[in-house]
Amino acid sequence: xxxxxxxxxxxxxxxxxxxxxxxxxxxxxxxxxxxxxxxxxxxxxxxxxxxxxxxxxxxxxxxxxxxxxxxxxxxxxxxxxxxxxxxxxxxxxxxxxxxxxxxxxxxxxxxxxxxxxxxxxxxxxxxxxxxxxxxxxxxxxxxxxxxxxxxxxxxxxxxxxxxxxxxxxxxxxxxxxxxxxxxxxxxxxxxxxxxxxxxxxxxxxxxxxxxxxxxxxxxxxxxxxxxxxxxxxxxxxxxxxxxxxxxxxxxxxxxxxxxxxxxxxxxxxxxxxxxxxxxxxxxxxxxxxxxxxxxxxxxxxxxxxxx
Length: 307
Prior knowledge:
The chain is α/β, with parallel strands linked by helices. Strands 1, 2, 3, 4, 5, 6, 7, 8, 9 and 10 form a 10-stranded mixed β-sheet that branches. Helix 3 crosses helix 4 and helix 8 packs parallel to helix 9. The chain has 9 helices and 10 strands. It starts with 39 loop residues before the first strand and ends in a 19-residue tail after the last strand.
C-alpha cells in the first residue's frame, strides 16, 4: 500500500484505460497493466532512436514507465511491459527527472507507455512546468487509450506519438487481446489531433517538432493487407494534419519463436511495397526507416538509469 500523500482517488476504482479493471490500485491491487498506484519507471535518459525531428542532435528525454495495458505477444519492450522491472518513485521525483533531462540538453520529454500513470504524470508535469520545464512534452503510446483520459492532458502535452497497430479485429484480438483496438485507437488519435492541431516545427537546419501528431505503424510479418488499410485510413481521415511513420524495426524475440509468421523479420520487399503504397495514395508527410533497424541492440537497457 502506498503512502497517504501519494493516493490517487481515481485509482481506487481504476478505469483509466479501455480495460476498465475497476481494481483498487491505491490499496495495492494490480490492474491489467501490471501496476498498482505506485509510480514505477525503468529508465530516464537521452534517447536517439526516435524520428529525426524528435531525437535531433541531443536526443529525446525518454522516460520508460513500467507496465502496459496492451501486452502484445511480440512486445519489443517485454522486460518492462510485464511490469517486473523498474523502480518505484514519487510524482515529485518524476518532476525532478523531467528537469534533469532538460538540463542534460534533451530536446523534449518523452513519456513512453504512460497511460496507466496519467494522474501521477499530470501532477509531475504541472510541478515541473512551474519550476521551469520549457521543452515540448511527448506522449508516446500504443493508442489503446480512452479519449476521456486523454482530455485530462490537454494543455500539458505538445506532441502525441501514437501507434496504430491493427485495422483487423482478428489480428488485434490474437496478438494483443484487444478486439476493440482499432475503434478505440482511432478515437484516441482523433482526440490527440484535436488537442494539438497540425504539425509545427522549429526553424533551423534540422527542424525539431514543437507540436503535432506522428502516428507510427510497425509493419508485422504477413500483415501487409492490414498495413495498407491502416495507411489509407490515416491518409483519408487526417491528411496533412499528421505525420505517418512507417517502421520496419520489428524484431522477433524468443517469446514468438513458435508463432509464425511473427517468428521472422519483415523482408526488404515487404517494406518497399508498403512504402510504395503510401506514396501512391498520396501520403507526403511521413518517415521511413533505412538500414538495419530490426535488431535487439535497438532495444534500450532497462537498468533504472536516471531513475
